[in-house]
Amino acid sequence: MALFRRKPNAATPLQVADPEEAKRIPITHEEVATALAPRGPIAEQFRSMRNSILALNPEGAPRSVVLTSAIRGEGKSVATINLALAMAEVPGTRVLMVDADLHGPSLEFYLGLPRRQGLVELLRGQCALDRAIRATSVPNVSLLGAGELPRNPSELIGSERLRTLLAQLKQRFSYILIDTPEALSISDASLLGAIADGIILVVRLGSTPRHFVEQVHNQLETMGGNVLGTCLTAATLVERDYARG
Description:
245 residues; disordered N terminus
Protein backbone atom coordinates (compact mmCIF):
# COMPACT_ATOMS: atom_id res chain seq x y z
CA MET A 1 0.00 0.00 0.00
CA ALA A 2 1.51 3.29 -1.06
CA LEU A 3 1.00 6.39 1.03
CA PHE A 4 -0.26 9.50 -0.73
CA ARG A 5 -0.23 12.36 1.73
CA ARG A 6 -1.75 15.74 1.31
CA LYS A 7 0.98 18.29 1.72
CA PRO A 8 0.03 21.17 4.00
CA ASN A 9 -0.30 24.57 2.39
CA ALA A 10 2.22 26.73 4.25
CA ALA A 11 0.54 29.90 2.99
CA THR A 12 -2.79 29.06 4.64
CA PRO A 13 -2.78 28.77 8.45
CA LEU A 14 -4.77 25.85 9.80
CA GLN A 15 -8.17 26.64 11.27
CA VAL A 16 -9.48 25.61 14.67
CA ALA A 17 -11.70 22.57 14.23
CA ASP A 18 -15.47 22.68 14.49
CA PRO A 19 -16.18 20.09 17.23
CA GLU A 20 -19.03 18.60 15.16
CA GLU A 21 -17.28 18.64 11.77
CA ALA A 22 -15.65 15.21 11.85
CA LYS A 23 -18.81 13.50 13.10
CA ARG A 24 -20.50 14.27 9.79
CA ILE A 25 -17.75 12.76 7.61
CA PRO A 26 -17.91 8.97 7.19
CA ILE A 27 -14.82 6.84 6.66
CA THR A 28 -14.53 5.80 3.02
CA HIS A 29 -10.90 4.70 2.53
CA GLU A 30 -10.88 1.00 1.70
CA GLU A 31 -7.76 0.44 3.83
CA VAL A 32 -9.85 1.02 6.96
CA ALA A 33 -11.29 -2.47 6.82
CA THR A 34 -12.59 -2.44 10.40
CA ALA A 35 -15.08 0.23 9.30
CA LEU A 36 -15.87 -0.85 5.75
CA ALA A 37 -15.68 -4.64 6.09
CA PRO A 38 -16.31 -5.30 9.80
CA ARG A 39 -17.16 -8.98 9.24
CA GLY A 40 -14.06 -9.64 7.15
CA PRO A 41 -10.79 -11.39 8.08
CA ILE A 42 -8.76 -8.18 8.27
CA ALA A 43 -11.08 -6.65 10.84
CA GLU A 44 -10.96 -9.88 12.83
CA GLN A 45 -7.18 -9.78 12.95
CA PHE A 46 -7.27 -6.29 14.41
CA ARG A 47 -9.77 -7.52 16.98
CA SER A 48 -7.32 -10.28 17.84
CA MET A 49 -4.60 -7.66 18.33
CA ARG A 50 -6.99 -5.62 20.45
CA ASN A 51 -7.71 -8.62 22.64
CA SER A 52 -4.01 -9.23 23.15
CA ILE A 53 -3.49 -5.63 24.26
CA LEU A 54 -6.47 -5.79 26.61
CA ALA A 55 -5.10 -9.01 28.11
CA LEU A 56 -1.89 -7.18 28.97
CA ASN A 57 -3.95 -4.63 30.89
CA PRO A 58 -6.25 -6.69 33.16
CA GLU A 59 -6.85 -3.80 35.55
CA GLY A 60 -8.27 -1.70 32.70
CA ALA A 61 -6.18 1.38 33.47
CA PRO A 62 -5.85 4.08 30.77
CA ARG A 63 -2.97 3.21 28.49
CA SER A 64 -0.94 4.94 25.79
CA VAL A 65 0.43 2.90 22.88
CA VAL A 66 2.86 4.11 20.20
CA LEU A 67 2.66 2.65 16.70
CA THR A 68 5.81 3.00 14.65
CA SER A 69 7.80 1.23 11.94
CA ALA A 70 11.38 0.86 10.83
CA ILE A 71 10.94 2.67 7.52
CA ARG A 72 8.23 4.70 5.79
CA GLY A 73 5.33 3.02 4.02
CA GLU A 74 4.82 0.10 6.39
CA GLY A 75 1.14 0.89 7.01
CA LYS A 76 1.36 2.17 10.59
CA SER A 77 -1.21 4.95 10.11
CA VAL A 78 -3.78 2.57 8.66
CA ALA A 79 -3.01 0.10 11.46
CA THR A 80 -3.54 2.87 14.03
CA ILE A 81 -7.03 3.62 12.69
CA ASN A 82 -8.08 -0.02 12.34
CA LEU A 83 -6.89 -0.83 15.85
CA ALA A 84 -8.66 2.23 17.29
CA LEU A 85 -11.96 1.17 15.73
CA ALA A 86 -11.53 -2.39 16.98
CA MET A 87 -10.80 -1.18 20.52
CA ALA A 88 -13.84 1.12 20.53
CA GLU A 89 -16.07 -1.92 19.99
CA VAL A 90 -15.44 -2.92 23.60
CA PRO A 91 -18.22 -1.42 25.76
CA GLY A 92 -17.10 1.55 27.83
CA THR A 93 -13.84 2.02 25.89
CA ARG A 94 -13.03 5.49 24.61
CA VAL A 95 -10.11 5.72 22.17
CA LEU A 96 -8.07 8.71 21.04
CA MET A 97 -5.84 8.61 17.97
CA VAL A 98 -2.94 11.08 18.11
CA ASP A 99 -1.07 11.96 14.93
CA ALA A 100 2.41 12.60 16.30
CA ASP A 101 4.07 12.18 12.91
CA LEU A 102 5.06 15.82 12.60
CA HIS A 103 7.08 15.05 9.46
CA GLY A 104 4.33 13.50 7.33
CA PRO A 105 0.96 13.22 9.11
CA SER A 106 -1.71 11.12 7.42
CA LEU A 107 -4.45 10.16 9.91
CA GLU A 108 -6.70 12.99 8.74
CA PHE A 109 -6.15 11.91 5.14
CA TYR A 110 -7.21 8.32 5.76
CA LEU A 111 -10.20 9.48 7.78
CA GLY A 112 -11.23 11.84 4.97
CA LEU A 113 -10.97 14.88 7.25
CA PRO A 114 -9.61 18.36 6.51
CA ARG A 115 -6.43 19.27 8.36
CA ARG A 116 -7.03 21.42 11.41
CA GLN A 117 -5.09 22.72 14.40
CA GLY A 118 -3.99 19.94 16.71
CA LEU A 119 -1.02 18.57 18.63
CA VAL A 120 1.46 21.28 17.69
CA GLU A 121 -0.89 24.11 18.68
CA LEU A 122 -1.70 22.34 21.96
CA LEU A 123 1.97 21.99 22.87
CA ARG A 124 2.53 25.67 22.02
CA GLY A 125 -0.45 26.79 24.09
CA GLN A 126 -2.21 28.17 21.00
CA CYS A 127 -5.29 25.95 21.10
CA ALA A 128 -7.53 24.60 23.85
CA LEU A 129 -7.72 20.85 24.37
CA ASP A 130 -11.46 20.70 23.69
CA ARG A 131 -11.00 22.45 20.35
CA ALA A 132 -8.05 20.32 19.25
CA ILE A 133 -9.69 16.94 19.87
CA ARG A 134 -12.35 15.93 17.36
CA ALA A 135 -14.97 13.22 17.74
CA THR A 136 -15.12 11.12 14.56
CA SER A 137 -18.10 9.51 12.84
CA VAL A 138 -17.31 6.30 14.77
CA PRO A 139 -18.72 6.31 18.32
CA ASN A 140 -16.09 6.54 21.09
CA VAL A 141 -13.24 7.23 18.63
CA SER A 142 -11.66 10.70 18.65
CA LEU A 143 -8.73 12.29 16.83
CA LEU A 144 -6.00 14.71 17.76
CA GLY A 145 -4.40 15.70 14.45
CA ALA A 146 -0.83 16.86 14.01
CA GLY A 147 -1.56 20.54 13.40
CA GLU A 148 0.84 22.91 11.66
CA LEU A 149 4.14 21.16 11.01
CA PRO A 150 6.99 22.74 13.03
CA ARG A 151 10.55 23.41 11.94
CA ASN A 152 11.95 21.18 14.69
CA PRO A 153 9.47 18.41 15.59
CA SER A 154 11.78 16.72 18.10
CA GLU A 155 11.88 19.88 20.20
CA LEU A 156 8.12 19.60 20.78
CA ILE A 157 8.02 15.80 21.01
CA GLY A 158 10.75 15.80 23.66
CA SER A 159 9.22 18.58 25.74
CA GLU A 160 7.85 18.23 29.25
CA ARG A 161 4.58 19.67 27.95
CA LEU A 162 4.00 16.48 26.00
CA ARG A 163 4.28 14.39 29.16
CA THR A 164 1.78 16.69 30.86
CA LEU A 165 -0.58 16.47 27.88
CA LEU A 166 -0.39 12.67 27.85
CA ALA A 167 -1.35 12.58 31.53
CA GLN A 168 -4.34 14.83 30.80
CA LEU A 169 -5.46 12.64 27.92
CA LYS A 170 -5.38 9.54 30.12
CA GLN A 171 -7.99 11.16 32.33
CA ARG A 172 -10.37 11.32 29.35
CA PHE A 173 -9.67 8.21 27.31
CA SER A 174 -9.25 4.48 27.91
CA TYR A 175 -6.59 4.09 25.22
CA ILE A 176 -4.43 6.60 23.39
CA LEU A 177 -2.95 5.31 20.12
CA ILE A 178 -0.04 7.45 18.95
CA ASP A 179 1.00 7.35 15.30
CA THR A 180 4.69 8.30 14.98
CA PRO A 181 7.28 8.63 12.18
CA GLU A 182 9.48 5.77 11.09
CA ALA A 183 11.93 5.03 13.90
CA LEU A 184 15.04 4.12 11.94
CA SER A 185 15.67 7.60 10.55
CA ILE A 186 13.68 9.88 12.91
CA SER A 187 14.14 9.99 16.69
CA ASP A 188 10.57 11.05 17.57
CA ALA A 189 9.26 7.48 17.88
CA SER A 190 11.95 6.58 20.40
CA LEU A 191 11.22 9.72 22.43
CA LEU A 192 7.50 8.96 22.51
CA GLY A 193 8.03 5.26 23.09
CA ALA A 194 10.03 6.02 26.21
CA ILE A 195 7.09 7.80 27.86
CA ALA A 196 4.24 5.66 26.50
CA ASP A 197 3.02 2.47 28.16
CA GLY A 198 3.77 0.32 25.14
CA ILE A 199 4.95 0.17 21.52
CA ILE A 200 3.67 -1.79 18.55
CA LEU A 201 6.15 -2.20 15.72
CA VAL A 202 4.47 -2.28 12.30
CA VAL A 203 6.29 -4.38 9.68
CA ARG A 204 5.38 -4.86 6.01
CA LEU A 205 5.56 -8.49 4.94
CA GLY A 206 8.22 -9.22 2.34
CA SER A 207 9.42 -5.62 2.27
CA THR A 208 11.16 -4.59 5.48
CA PRO A 209 14.66 -6.06 5.83
CA ARG A 210 14.85 -8.24 8.94
CA HIS A 211 17.93 -6.48 10.26
CA PHE A 212 16.09 -3.15 10.12
CA VAL A 213 13.33 -4.57 12.30
CA GLU A 214 15.83 -5.99 14.78
CA GLN A 215 17.76 -2.72 14.86
CA VAL A 216 14.65 -0.66 15.57
CA HIS A 217 13.39 -3.11 18.18
CA ASN A 218 16.69 -2.86 20.06
CA GLN A 219 16.77 0.91 19.64
CA LEU A 220 13.30 1.36 21.11
CA GLU A 221 14.04 -0.84 24.09
CA THR A 222 17.42 0.81 24.69
CA MET A 223 15.61 4.16 24.96
CA GLY A 224 13.32 2.71 27.63
CA GLY A 225 10.40 1.65 25.44
CA ASN A 226 8.22 -1.39 26.09
CA VAL A 227 7.72 -3.20 22.77
CA LEU A 228 4.47 -5.14 23.10
CA GLY A 229 4.68 -6.93 19.77
CA THR A 230 4.62 -6.70 15.99
CA CYS A 231 1.81 -5.92 13.56
CA LEU A 232 2.49 -7.50 10.17
CA THR A 233 0.91 -5.62 7.26
CA ALA A 234 0.30 -6.66 3.64
CA ALA A 235 -0.15 -10.30 4.69
CA THR A 236 -2.39 -12.59 2.66
CA LEU A 237 -5.30 -14.53 4.13
CA VAL A 238 -2.99 -17.52 4.49
CA GLU A 239 -0.93 -15.61 7.04
CA ARG A 240 -3.87 -15.27 9.45
CA ASP A 241 -1.72 -14.65 12.50
CA TYR A 242 -1.39 -10.99 11.61
CA ALA A 243 -3.39 -7.98 10.46
CA ARG A 244 -3.17 -6.35 7.08
CA GLY A 245 -2.84 -2.55 7.12
